[in-house]
Amino acid sequence: HERLVMAPVELSVQTIFSVLEHRAGDVQRAYELLRRALELIEPGSHREALIRANLSTLSIERGRLAEAQELIREAHETLLRLGVSDLAESYSMLGHAARARGDLAAAEEAYLAALEQARKLGMPRGIAGQLHNLGSLAQDREDLVAARSYYERALSDETLREADHWGTALTLSELGEVELRAGNLAAAEDYVRRALERRREMGSEGPDVAASLRQLVDLARLRGRPNAALAHYREALAMHRAVAAASSQVATDLVRIGLLELELGRRADAESPLAEALRIRRRLLPSTAMEAEAAYALGRLRLEQGRRAETLDLYGSAVRALD
Hints:
By secondary structure, this protein is mostly helical. Helices cover 83% and strands 0% of the residues.
């Protein structure tokens, strides 16, 4: 009896924590928690089908396409057997699975079916979500005109736009990518800044904000604003240091900062971040491509300083890390 009482509570905890881990960027942990939730749910139930559908998305992100397809097939069949009227989400998951295996025609068919379901049931958030999926699919096909149209339609509902900060930020971010690929750099930057603002309104300082900052770095460099790019790198570094003072991501930020300082001819300013990055990577992940990158970057600086022996030593470290 105690187990029957506790299971719904544990199920909710496992599911909520899975969502939080996924938002934090830990797909493996999110998957494990949702697998645990699946063990607690009644087989053949509506909720079990939804958990399987969400697991399929995580399986795609983990590169396990066969598992993802099986999970979503089982979820979709359960929903059909139960006579559930809302099949938008499972059609959407079928679209994700088809897209992951490269079948864009099947993905489009599934997304359109999901869109029809969402419209039939009067679900503004579902409609916006499927328009976003179709826009993303159009990007895969290099059809920027169609992608822009789908994304703009996804943002057309003002009430939803104000209520769904996460979805709105994602679509704004993708519109920024569309405009970047179209060469409209000013418009791209405007969309990315709006996405960043939305993400920060949610109190997020995680992977989503970091993604927006990376977009702004790319745009600043393309627009000939290296100091602005450097400022965005430093902002990302401060955010990552707040999470962990000496993480792999911190080392990556330091390498990017050091290389950009080198490009700007500021060798003295490049030395400290590159040396720190190498120390972090040697401590965390010795003999990897990440250590090689840091060693090579610092070697470039030593070469420009005329310190030949140190340059050869660092280049040798880079080569050995890749062996």
